[in-house]
């Protein structure tokens, strides 16, 4: 048979335990709230204390220009002045070479005539030479009126001595038989009387 005394003893103890547990839970809740409240109250103050202990941030340094940070380059030495080159004389073009024949004589005469402003063309000179002398620089007329007067026509273009002496062109020989001198003197005379040897088509 069970002991009733044990049962009656346990029942009050169980109720008392439940009550005690409830009471303990309340105490714990109150304590926890106090602790939380204390913690909540202390966190800002602790943060403030920590913040006060932090050193103030240093002011931002001004940016240094790149050019100021680089060392200055040394100045380049001045280049030495170049010596002046001596003024060399410009050589004159070589004198043309003319063949010692009718073609060469006419070309030579034309160059001299051009330098002296005397008109005339190769064809005009050649045409009159062939009519007057046939291209023979030693030709002489011993039968016309000039020959009868003692001043025969001579050379490629059959010039008489007075005409040659009056219309001689500088730079040519003072020789009526010299082909270039004969041509240039005759063309100079024809330029003054007919405008050009090109305008002469018969005895002149």
What does the secondary structure layout of this molecule look like, with pairings?
Blueprint: H1 4-53, H2 66-69, H3 102-115, H4 122-132, H5 145-148, H6 161-167, H7 179-194
Helix pairs in contact: 3-7, 6-7
Written description of the protein model:
- This protein has helices at 4-53, 66-69, 102-115, 122-132, 145-148, 161-167, 179-194.
- It is mostly helical.
- The radius of gyration is 69 Å and the shape is rod-shaped.
- The relative contact order is 0.08.
- Mean pLDDT is 79; it is low at 1-12 and 27-48.
Q: How big is the Rg?
A: 69 Å
Q: How many β-strands, per DSSP?
A: 0
Choose one word for the global shape: rod-shaped
Oligomer designation: single chain
Structural class based on helices, strands and sheet pairing: mainly alpha
Helix segment tally: 7
Largest sheet: none
Indicate the low-confidence ranges by residue numbers: 1-12, 27-48
């Amino acid at each position: 048979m069970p002991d009733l005394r044990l049962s009656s003893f346990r029942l009050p103890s169980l109720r008392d335990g439940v009550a005690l547990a409830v009471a303990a839970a309340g105490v714990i809740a109150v304590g926890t709230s106090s602790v939380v409240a204390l913690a909540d109250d202390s966190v800002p103050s602790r943060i403030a204390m920590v913040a006060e202990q932090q050193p103030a941030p240093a002011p931002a340094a001004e940016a240094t220009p790149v050019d100021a940070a680089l060392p200055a380059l040394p100045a380049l030495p001045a280049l030495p002045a170049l010596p002046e080159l001596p003024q060399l004389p410009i050589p004159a073009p070589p004198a043309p070479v003319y063949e010692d024949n009718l073609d060469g004589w006419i070309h030579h005469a034309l160059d001299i005539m051009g330098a002296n402003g005397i008109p005339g063309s190769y064809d005009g000179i050649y045409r009159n030479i062939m009519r007057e002398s046939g291209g023979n620089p030693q030709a002489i007329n011993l039968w016309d009126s000039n020959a009868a007067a003692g001043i025969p026509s001579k050379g490629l273009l059959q010039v008489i001595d007075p005409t040659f002496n009056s219309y001689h062109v500088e730079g040519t020989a003072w020789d009526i038989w010299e082909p270039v001198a004969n041509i240039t003197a005759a063309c100079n005379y024809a330029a003054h009387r007919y405008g050009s040897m090109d305008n002469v088509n018969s005895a002149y």
